[in-house]
Amino acid sequence: MPTYDLDVFVFLPRSESPLVSLDSVYAWAAARGYAARHEHIIIEGLPTQFIPSPNALSDEAITSAGVLDYKGLEVRVVQPEYLVALYSQPEARTAKRRERAAMLLDWPGLKRPLLDEILKRHGLEL
After folding, report:
1. Are the C-beta atoms of residues 9 and 61 closer than 8 Å to each other?
2. In whole angstroms, what is the distance from residue 61 CA to residue 79 CA?
3. What pTM was computed for the model?
4. Domain tally for the chain?
């Protein structure tokens, strides 16, 4: 799907504060020569947004991510079934995400039984 940026879910240390600090992520990027622009870190020319994992569903999406080869580099990618589930969360429902979920639901490679299991486990509906 066309997109402006790359979203990367990350595990960060838990905090008692309702505010989440991304200082460690920005320090990591700066140490490697990557510039920050607004909420993005520009990595090899690609605007990249680091998103702290907010709940059990995204934690599960991270830990079950598949490994793909991208230009000779192994990258972990959230499975499409988890993307649909993430997009179906009430707090995540936007027109753009509904459109993306619809595209994934029409994709022949989608594992519908896995999606149904994920939705049920997390109390979600399409």
Report:
1. yes
2. 7
3. 0.84
4. 2
